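U., I forgot to send this yesterday:
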Amino acid sequence: MAMDQYMQAAVDEARRGLAEGGIPIGSVLVHHGKIIGHGHNRRVQKGSTTLHGEMDALENAGRQSAAVYRECVIYTTLSPCPMCSGAILLYGIPKVVIGENQTFLGDEAHLISRGVTLEVLNEPECIELMTRFIADRPELWNEDIGEP
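Result:
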């Protein structure tokens, strides 16, 4: 079965990040079927401490009203870390579609405990992208997730 257009857009963002020398994680914010924000992990490219894929998508969506966020779905190629999960909770985004959580299990339990709906696809393309990246650049991956 083909990947849906929103997860495909997130994967395209992840591939863009990898091509830029960064970490291949992408995300899109969708409101009523329209992508209003897209982004990818740009910690390396921007020398940023916080620019994960979800944070970049939220930033690129610009300021939105609370009512808009409450009607959004955020798609991310990888299970959201505690920082990105916090932003999802802060803005009241009710649903997260996750490309995969095999290479990294983020703060899914916290999201669920706060009433966020999660849909984990475990897309082979997402798993393969992260598996290859982690094998090729373990030091960069460990830096991104705060491991020693």
